Amino acid sequence: MAYNLLATPYSWALLTALFLGAALQRATRRARPRYLGDDPERARSSKWLSFSLYLSLAVAFALGAVFVPGPRRIVDPFLLYFFLAGTAVFFLAFRFRKSIGLIALLLALALTFTVALFVRSLTAFTGETEIGRVRALAARGGQMKLEIIAARHEPVIRAMAGDYFAPVVKVVIFDDVFVFLGAKSWYRFEGLTSFALQKSESGRSFRQQDTDFYFPFPAGISEQLWDLYERYDNRVPGVRSVQVEIDLKKARELATYSLRVQNDGGVQIVELPPP
Predict the structure, then answer these.
(1) Can you tell me the distance from the alpha carbon of 7 to that of 23, in angstroms, rounded to the nearest whole number?
(2) Are 158 and 186 part of one and the same domain?
(3) Residues 135 and 227 in one domain
């Protein structure tokens, strides 16, 4: 997931606070003629015209915060505190430019930097990369017919035994510090295998079936690079773990599943809503 300033409501909230602070500064400041002999009524008209312009821009950016990132992204109490603090800082910076303008500007820059780091870290630890999709064309009686879709490969349809499919993904997981700085887990999507849930005297257990599918040229890092990291995973700085992920998901007929590698490690299989 690429980090995009326009995709976060905090960027829009900061711009809204900027222009709302400017509007409040114009509203609370006395209208004074710029030059001797100017009409005071003209100064008052200019004051409220500037106020209306700044307020309109603030409303426009507030609407951008709702509709560009999406309404669900603005339901965050911290966003309200950030907006109110930003408005106060910008108001003081514009209202008292000579006395505390520089201090307010530094506070605004510090606030922006802090929020940027917060949003970046949130994006890093919650980000993910879709590596492929699986569509269950049929799934009944212990047999599955799956369509496997991966980057740089043509869709492949395979019949597999069992009720559960499992992507085979090799991952290199980096330390949290590198994830915070924007690193994403490296992966190598090898293919797909299948499992069946069987009953025995000791209870139920998953048994791997003999219907595997492996890409001739898997997407992701090269086999040589993977072997190097696997051999020296405890010696490479910044690497937390090098492992193979095999996660099971029960196939539901006509359902489509997204295969996703998390930035901080692990593979998720998410069922997508029907089109």
Answers:
(1) 26
(2) yes
(3) yes
Is-contact 191 245, C-beta < 8 A?
no
Q: Is residue 270 part of a domain?
A: no
Domain that holds residue 21: 5-125
The answer on 41 and 146 residing in a single domain is no
Structure tokens at 203: 């209870």
For 77, residues 6+ apart whose C-beta sits below 8 A from its C-beta are none
Q: What is the pLDDT of residues 183-215, one digit of tens each?
A: 778 899 999 999 998 887 777 888 999 889 999
The gap from C-alpha 20 to its chain's centroid, in whole angstroms, comes to: 28
Quote the DSSP letter at residue 273.
P
Number of other residues whose CB lies within 10 A of the CB of residue 163: 22
What count of Cα atoms within 13 Å lies in the side-chain half-sphere of residue 133?
14
Which of 90, 125, 160 is where one domain is finished? 125
Q: What is the pTM of this model?
A: 0.56
Domain match, 100 and 154 both: no
